[in-house]
């Protein structure tokens, strides 16, 4: 599709000028459309009609004007809506998240670095924003797209509106487009590069005229592909900080000490460990193995994070040193992919990924199904249903098996080592936001550290 003219036939509507309403609906007919297609914002009852900028007679209103916000996809589709948040230009990989709630946690999840997020739930912003729910110190998404932003904020914890928060943080967004149609397209075509343009970014400074689709598309295609990007250093903490035991363990000596390597860690993750009596040292991605040893940890954790795991060579080598030393290991999301690669398995990019808080996952060790929170565009390529020798160095790390699978598509969602104290999951048991079905995995990590301590590492 993108880049060349490909003819397709759609069932569409012919639009013509109408003095009364600006557009009118004529008899339905089969029209042959050319790419790129344009989704033009028109009166609500006609919203979502696909028209072609190249087909004479199929469009009788401007594609967009200087007051619009315009979304341009890599394959040439264009959606005109209204600005939401800051005005300007942003590009990145466009993905969609299916959660009905938890938008503040989504926005501040470092795993969304350099991604434009589309919310599939139509009404966003009802509960405003507060200082308690963020998963990190800033908003990480590159851009944000919603269908119908809430005009009002109604929540006892609210400290401001989402729109104002996006504007303050310079996050360029777009609203009032048919997000269902957009997401259906992304599910079919796969996630891709995209750009949101509004305000001065729509104007050619040389001529003062509106930029053409071709000009906007060129900016999109100059954006780096997610596959091949190394981003974990970009989002990692620069200095070590410590989370002390909390809840019933507050003020007490820690039961276990954990070195948590921050590759884009969410704030709730060390908190879940602290709730179980752990002292958690959150360390930069640049930490050396010797520095980890100096912390004298009972276990090592690798967090979630953005980018392509194939580009994380230094972290994979660090993880192998951790495994060689016999430290209990737990990985989440990016950490699961790195364990897979450390064991000798490959990773691959999913067509449109898993992002939301309603993914069914089966724990193959218990047979139980849990509803889980996800945010990943890559997955581990490992055999399901049997124990195998870890491929690295002819089985150096012993036996391993896939412990969890996604019931929607059989994607690997967890790995369990048999002969060394290491396991990981692809999804987010810290559940921020999301269900708490998988909280037992933190208990499993604590049990692993407890047993390893008894045996003597």
TrEMBL record:
Matches recorded under InterPro entries: Anth_synth/Amidotransfase, CarbamoylP_synth_ssu, CarbamoylP_synth_ssu_N, CarbP_synth_ssu_N_sf, Class_I_gatase-like, CPSase_GATase1, GATASE
SMART domains: CPSase_sm_chain (SM01097)
Region described as CPSase: spans on this chain: 1-256
Source organism superkingdom: Bacteria
The EC number(s) this enzyme carries: 6.3.5.5
GO biological process: 'de novo' pyrimidine nucleobase biosynthetic process; 'de novo' UMP biosynthetic process; glutamine metabolic process; L-arginine biosynthetic process
The keyword rRNA processing is annotated on this UniProt entry: no
Span of domain Carbamoyl-phosphate synthase small subunit N-terminal: 67-197
Name of protein: Carbamoyl phosphate synthase small chain
Organism: Bifidobacterium longum subsp. infantis
Purpose: Small subunit of the glutamine-dependent carbamoyl phosphate synthetase (CPSase). CPSase catalyzes the formation of carbamoyl phosphate from the ammonia moiety of glutamine, carbonate, and phosphate donated by ATP, constituting the first step of 2 biosynthetic pathways, one leading to arginine and/or urea and the other to pyrimidine nucleotides. The small subunit (glutamine amidotransferase) binds and cleaves glutamine to supply the large subunit with the substrate ammonia.
Enzyme class: ligase
Organism lineage string: Bacteria, Bacillati, Actinomycetota, Actinomycetes, Bifidobacteriales
Entry-linked Pfam families: CPSase_sm_chain (PF00988), GATase (PF00117)
Keywords: Amino-acid biosynthesis, Arginine biosynthesis, ATP-binding, Glutamine amidotransferase, Ligase, Nucleotide-binding, Pyrimidine biosynthesis
Family indicated by similarity: Belongs to the CarA family.
Catalytic activity: hydrogencarbonate + L-glutamine + 2 ATP + H2O = carbamoyl phosphate + L-glutamate + 2 ADP + phosphate + 2 H(+); L-glutamine + H2O = L-glutamate + NH4(+)
Positions with a binding annotation for L-glutamine: 111, 305, 307, 334, 337, 375, 377-378
Pathway(s) per entry: Amino-acid biosynthesis; L-arginine biosynthesis; carbamoyl phosphate from bicarbonate: step 1/1; Pyrimidine metabolism; UMP biosynthesis via de novo pathway; (S)-dihydroorotate from bicarbonate: step 1/3
Subunit-level organization: Composed of two chains; the small (or glutamine) chain promotes the hydrolysis of glutamine to ammonia, which is used by the large (or ammonia) chain to synthesize carbamoyl phosphate. Tetramer of heterodimers (alpha,beta)4.
Active-site residues (renumbered): 333 (nucleophile), 428, 430
GO molecular function, one term: glutaminase activity
